[in-house]
Amino acid sequence: MRNADLSCSHWHSRCQSRKRARPQSLEQGITLRGSTDIVAEFFWFGINSILYQRGIYPAETFTRVQKYGLPLLVTADPELVKYLHTVVGQLKDWLCMCSVQKLVVVISNLENGEVLERWQFDVECDKTARDDGAPREKSLQAIQAEIRSVIRQITAAVTFLPLLEVSCSFDLLIYTDKDLVVPEKWEECGPQFIASSEQVRLRSFTTTIHKVDSAVAYKSPVSD
Amino acid sequence: MEDLGENTTVLSSLRSLNNFISQRVDGGAGLDASASAPGSLQMQYQQSMQLEERAEQIRAKSHIIQVEREKMQMQLSHKRARVELERAASTSARSYEREVDRNQELLTRIRQLQDREAEAEEKMKEQLEHSRQCKQSLDAANKRLREKEDGLAEASETISELKGRISELQWSVMNQEMQVKGLESEKQELQEQLDLQLRKWQEANQKIQELQAGQEARTEQEQKIKDLEQKLFLQEQDSAIVKSMKSELVRLPKMERELKQLKEENAYLREMRETNGLLREEVEGLQRKLSRQEKMQENLVDLELEKERLLAKLQSWERLDQTTGLSISVRELDKVRQQLQEEVRQVSAQLLEERKKRETHEALARRLQKRVLLLTKERDGMRAILGSYDSELTPAEYSPQLTRRMREAEDMVQKVHAHSSEMEAQLSQALEELGSQKQRADMLEMELKVLQAQAGPTEQSVLLSREEASELRVKVEELEGERSRLEEDKRRLEAQLEHLTLQGDYDQSKTKVLHLSMNPAREAQQSRRQDQARLQEECEQLRKLVCALERGGPVPADLEAACLPSSKEVAGHGTRGHQDAAAGDGVLADGARAHRAAPAAPGQHPRLPWRPHPRPLQPPDPGLAPSPAASPAARPCARPAAQPCARPSARPCHPALRPALRPALRPALPPHSELGGGSAGARGWWRHPTHCTTRTTAARTGGRT
Lengths: 224, 705
Known about the structure:
heterodimer, A: alpha+beta, five-stranded antiparallel sheet, two-stranded antiparallel sheet, globular, B: 705 residues
């Protein structure tokens, strides 16, 4: 587990060092690169929070870190960390190209593959930011406050979501533009809808270049 | 020296003289012998006497000179001597003074030396005394030194004694430090135990608080239930009342409806009456219009006849033109016609204006006449009043009241005048407006007539336009209805689209969904399938073994061998497969402890070795669940012992509660396995398959045997 801790903290420190290396882009304004970093970081912590809150992985495999002024739990499992790194890294590249439309965390029953929950994050990219390089005026604290409220809502959503009584696994789907080149190790798949679902829209946050809306869809509980 | 020089010259001259003389004497002697003359001898004697005289003179002179020379020399020598004397005197004086000075100096030196001697003697005395004192002090110091040496010797003796004691004390200190270290280590251990106890206490407190909160919630909910029951009772009462009132209320709307109907009928009848009046007026107006229209039609017919005649004339003229060659173009005719029409319009406008003027003048005249009548009436009235006043006044006296009344009356009159003038002004404005409206109406009628004359058809166009307007209105209403329907459809579709996008739908032509090929769900499914296959194989082999054992015959060696490694695999893969769902290293301790706590399953085949977890640390496979083979089999394996696999496949500890319980459970790791089944649920979920698989197989084998 030490390796996992190191890798997780290393990635975290890499994020922070990247921030330190370009303090101007984040303090003077939000550039496209800075915005993708913020959004990718949010996804990293958000997915980890969802995995912890929904009990997809045992609680002992999570370590506590401080982020956005909240104590958040991130996984220390090296395989999982590696998988998340791969996905979030690719997501970052696609965010820079403004080709990402949604990121979906699909939680499905392990036995029959039935989808039980869908955490959907819609990404709207301001394509004009790709063309002109002027940084946008928005303070990092404001963005972090918005992200904080979203993550708090994810944590609070557990209170109304139905209980996951079976063992579950998760998958990450990314909705991209049709003309995007599919890298190797990636493949197309179906959207994995829930048959009869109820949706709840959660808060959103925006960096003035990327706007991320959150929603959770869960299988309607069958009335007894 | 000049004197000497002179002296030398004198001397030389003397010599020369002497020589001369000597010569002359010889000569003379010689001459004397000659007997020349006695006379020449006298002259010679005279001459010689003269020469002697001269020589004596010269000798005297030279003697004088010599004497003078000597005198001078004497003087000089005298001077020199004097000078030398003076010098010697001076030098002697100086030497004398020097001697005196030296004497004085020597005297002073002597005195000084004497003084110094005296001082030296005193010093000597002092130093002698000092030396005596020093000697005394030295003696004293020597005595003290001796005493100190004695003391030092004693002190050194004591020091040696003390050093001995110090060494003893150090030894004792070291012993005590050793003791202290031991005590400190004990203290640390005790503190750790204390921390553990504190943590336990805190957990207990938290549990107590949670229980209290639960109890409070329960009491609150009971209160809510009571409130709701009360409300329900009240509502039932209200419903009973309502039912009793309903019958009465049923009558009310009917009455209200009747009332409404009667009111509506009233209003309708009043409106009908008013509309009747209006309609009658309209009818009269329309009848007048009709009469006018009929006249217009007659005019029109006449005009058409004239037009035909004129057309015929025109055609004849055109034929004439064609035959004669006069070129009268249509445009010119149109122009002429338009000019004539404009003239007609202008004339009609003038006519209307003149009519209007006439009417205004007539109205003015009427107004003025009325005003005149009013004024005369007023004047008569005032005259009458004044006459009455005069008649009253002549018998009576002047009084202020009358004057006041007079003034009041005059004010009233002025106000009335002003009011009447305002009214007249308003009336005139209204009449002017009416006149302008009439004029406009007449103008419009004229234009209408003109247009009608131009167009040709008369009333049909108006009717057509009216029909067109009604058709257009109908169309507009239909379109508006369609628009509202379309808007509703649009809103419905947008809501549907929003719903679908929330569900995850997307436009397939613009979007595609990607995911990593090796994602956790797929990996979990693959491992699950592999485990299932493995377990099925194991099951079959064990069944074969059981059959063989049931038969009672010798167990085939290959089966046994296959079963033993398969059981090993069961233990190993079971742990791997089902502990994967468990945590990483944290579970090892729990698993081991749980294993220790679990006795060997009764009925387990003696040959099946009870293997501990061969590979405690495995990278957990994400989200793996107990296999379906194990989960239904877990039911028969329900044992009341403190084993988490007593539960069915459904997880007892809800994931929702897990986050809350996790912090509570984390410190409770050591006693975890001792807790009952319920609280062990969260942690036990990932562990129960391990025990279940081995124990289910054991139970099955045990049951079959």
